Amino acid sequence: MATAKKHISKDGKVTYYIRAYDGYDSNGKHIERCMTWIPPDKMKPDQIEKELERQKIRFEELVRNGTYFDDNTRFSEYAETWLENNKPMLAPKTYERYKALLKNINLAIGDTKLTKLQPHHLKAFYNNLREKGIKQVGAYAHSDKLRDLISEKHLTIKAVASKAGLSAATVSAACKAEHISIESAEKIAAALGRKTDKLFKLHTETTGLSSKTILHHHRLISSILAEATRDGLVPRNIADRNYMKAPKLEHSEAAFLDDEQARHVLELLDEEPLKWKTAMYLLIFSGMRRGELLGLEWKDIDFDNRVIHIKRTSQYVQNMGIITKSPKNETSYRTIKLSEMVFDLLGEYQAYWNKLRNDMLDRWEHFITITLADGSTKTVRNDRLFIKDDTTPMNPDSLTDWTSKFVKRNKLPHFTPHSLRHTHATLLIAEGVSIPAVSKRLGHSSITTTSKIYVHAIQSADEIASDVIDSKLNPVKHKDTKEEAK
Q1: Looking at the structure, do residues 215 and 79 belong to the same domain, yes or no?
Q2: Are 19 and 148 in a shared domain?
Q3: Mean pLDDT score, 238-265
Q4: If you ran DSSP here, which 8-state letter would residue 382 be given?
Q5: CA-CA-CA-CA torsion sign (42, 46, 48, 54)
Q6: Last residue in a domain, options 354, 372, 395
Q7: Strand arrangement, sheet containing 307-310
Q8: Residue 96 forms part of a structural domain
Q9: pLDDT (tens digit, 9 = 90+) per residue, 152-183?
Q10: What is the DSSP annotation of 235-261?
């Protein structure tokens, strides 16, 4: 068992030196590991005693498991261990995002020792992220060689997509010399054993990262340092608000279509295949998230009461493929009421879906194996509304790819599937629907979230309300109206 020795400095500061043994060296002597723990200010004696025992047990486990860190530990070493230890508690998409953020973080402060890290290091890093040249915006890649290379290697688009960790739709678009992201081009080139700039023509334009993305970097660093503080590796979390201000978040309005643009989109959808028309109508009229739409099963559709139950979400995660997981938060489990018109379209689409199943006969997968968020698999009845040609669940990126082509083909203002969620919310607020009602329909975790995202729409609605009450009660206007009537 680890032991602790108390030390009180001349100024009364209390420090505990915790010691544990880590086997024997070549001379048969105990290998001793040590760490220091400084109780936070204002911690009561009984709290100190309890926390000291926890620190001793935790330190012993770290030494026993070979994950012990000391004063020479660099940020990157600790951060990578932190990420893997927390992987079981993180959603796959969150883990993937943290891993990407740590690439930037470790390039800047990864070699810095935890004990030497200071707020000014973080401030310099955030300033660097704001500079032009960090993020590729408006950048794209295209290739007129890809299709021939895939044929030469006797590969299929699906096989290349699987090896690259991308959707088949993205690889298919690249084969047609359409614009794809540079990141996707790099993955395709790596999968085919080619250099990116030899296989693709790259067009780049760079800028700094958004304030929101910079704040995500800061929050991740703070979470890691908070754990390092609990581990006794650093006396305080220098990213905490008590020691430095978090990067300022500049508010930006959510992209959405106005009512006239939305009506035009609905008119254009009448000329599109029924599957895509139905998917887009559901996004516009329900405000559900893209992943929630792709997670829908027919048993979630209540035709009698005209409601849809949101019970799961579908996501694409690199190295895992398409996964099925629970909704974003508890409030995301919800029931959404829809109009008779939308349910008439759903009934038409269900008839099409059933006919497709019957026509495909033995090619239809009546049972499919889905991957869950923890990496395990489960065999379920094939009941998804939106499926690929092989009848398995559709990749959410396919919907985004189709929307992009639909926008370009019809020369529409740029929007994505998520823009239609914002369109839904903005139109509801403009028509006077209460913020709590909108928040519940969207499945937000709190009304505050809704208010922050749609602040402009709320202000506009408030201005309309002001005009309405003025027109109803302004005595001058009513006097003028009466005089005109005489």
Answers
A1: yes
A2: no
A3: 85
A4: -
A5: negative
A6: 395
A7: 301-302, 307-310, 334-337
A8: yes
A9: 999 999 899 889 888 787 888 889 887 788 88
A10: SS-TTSTTTSPPPP----PPP---HHH
Q: 250 is written with which tokens?
A: 């500049």
C-alpha torsion 345→170→311→216, nearest 10? -130
Domain match, 385 and 355 both: yes
Measured over all CA atoms, what is the biggest interatomic distance in the chain, rounded to whole angstroms? 113
Instruction: Tell me how far apart the alpha carbons of residues 245 and 126 are, in angstroms, rounded to a whole number.
Output: 12
Cβ–Cβ < 8 Å for 324, 295: yes
CB 206 within 8 A of CB 137: yes
Residue with tokens 């996964």: 323
Contacts of 54 (CB under 8 A, 6+ apart): none
Please give the Cα distance from 66 to 206 (Å, whole number): 42
**Which residue segment(s) compose the domain that 325 sits in?**
273-280+287-395
Give the pLDDT of residue 155: 92
Amino acid at 402: W
Looking at the structure, do residues 391 and 308 belong to the same domain, yes or no?
Answer: yes
In the structure, what pLDDT confidence band is assigned to residue 205 with cuts at 50, 70 and 90?
A: low
Closest by Cα among 244, 249, 248 to 119: 244
**One domain, residues 312 and 349:** yes
Burial of residue 309 (number of CB atoms within 10 Å: 0-12, 13-18, 19+):
middle
In order, the DSSP letters of 180-223 are: B-HHHHHHHHHHTT--HHHHSEEE--EEPPPHHHHHHHHHHHHH
C-alpha to C-alpha distance for 434 and 10, rounded to whole angstroms: 61
Compute φ and ψ for 14, nearest 5 degrees: -100, 130
Is residue 464 a part of any domain in this protein?
no
Query: How would you classify the pairing of strands 135-136 and 140-142?
Result: unpaired
Query: What number of other Cβ atoms are within 10 A of residue 117's Cβ?
Result: 19
**Residue 466 within any structural domain of the chain:** no
CATH code (residue 168): 1.10.260.40
As for how many domains the chain has, the answer is: 4
The whole-number average pLDDT for the span 265-290 is 96
Residue 97 counted as domain residue: yes
pLDDT of 265 strictly over 60:
yes
Do 37 and 55 contact (CB within 8 A), yes or no? yes
